[in-house]
Write a structure and sequence with these properties.
By secondary structure, the chain is of the alpha/beta class. It contains 11 helices and 6 strands. About 35% of the residues lie in helices and about 10% in strands. It is globular. The termini are far apart. The protein binds iron/sulfur cluster (2 copies). The site of one iron/sulfur cluster has 12 residues, from β6.
Length: about 240
């Protein structure tokens, strides 16, 4: 299970900016269990955004948002409602928000932060990975996580070392920041690159000690972990 919590409403409103119409999608998997993106949170968010003057073109509570094929299947009956919206608000973890953003050609805003609980398990093993930084930056990066897509986990832009789209650290990996640039460009969002992103609060990346005393922590951590991305700024071995 991946734990997530909703971002403050003011932050969500700031992400939506001048968008007049919004489609809201939540996840009936971990986000439902977390109380951050289940059907009741989707309904509550619809009301709050309508009260704030936004038009909601539609909502969807999908089974799981961390798998792109499922996202596309779940949204099949909602194509017109998604198309009518200026953007999509996604109420789920970082993996799910990335999967939604990769699945639909639409501006997607993260409505949640993913909380580090010492390793996530249960999500689909897609190409989207989340480091559970607790301060989701996906709004600034076109829905691609800079912590996991960039080998150096840079959050403020490319290092400049990429060669023909490949990372300077490992030619096996595409440059995450080139992917972010291409995504932002394709959605008319290049101005997002001008945003000043605050340094990460590393307290949020560490596991909350309170979390470790929960029975769930012991149960989850007694099982083999899913592959995790390298820690931000971790040493990367080169040949
Ligand atoms: S920025 Fe990346 S690591 Fe942080 S919550 Fe979002 S997807 Fe996860
Ligand atoms: S070349 Fe590698 S380290 Fe540099 S920005 Fe791209 S992914 Fe990050």
């Amino acid at each position: 299970m991946i734990l997530s919590e909703q971002k403050p409403f003011e932050e969500i409103l700031a992400f939506l900016g001048k968008d007049k119409s919004v489609f809201i999608i939540g996840c009936n998997g971990c986000a439902y269990s977390s109380g951050s993106g289940g059907p009741s949170q989707v309904a509550d968010m619809k009301k709050k955004l309508e009260d704030a003057g936004k038009k909601i073109t539609g909502t969807k509570s999908a089974a799981f948002l961390c798998e792109k094929a499922l996202v596309k299947t779940e949204l099949r009956g909602k194509v017109n409602e998604v198309a009518a919206a200026d953007s999509v608000l996604v109420l789920t973890c970082g993996v799910g928000t990335q999967a939604v953003s990769a699945s639909i050609n639409k501006v997607c805003h993260p409505g949640c932060n993913t909380i580090n609980r010492g390793g996530s398990r249960g999500e689909w093993e897609g190409s989207e990975r989340c480091f559970e930084c607790g301060q989701c930056l996906l709004d600034f990066t076109g829905g691609i996580c800079p912590l996991t897509a960039c080998t150096k986990s840079l959050i403020s832009g490319a290092c400049g070392g990429a060669n023909k789209g490949k990372c300077e650290v490992s030619q096996d990996r595409p440059c995450g920041w080139e992917q972010i640039y291409d995504r932002l460009k394709s959605r008319g969002l290049l101005d997002k690159l001008q945003a000043v992103i605050n340094p990460l609060d590393h307290k949020k990346i560490m596991v909350n000690p309170k979390m470790m005393s929960l029975p769930l922590f012991g149960v989850e951590n007694s099982r083999p972990a899913s592959p995790k991305p390298a820690a931000p700024n971790a040493e990367v071995k080169t040949k």
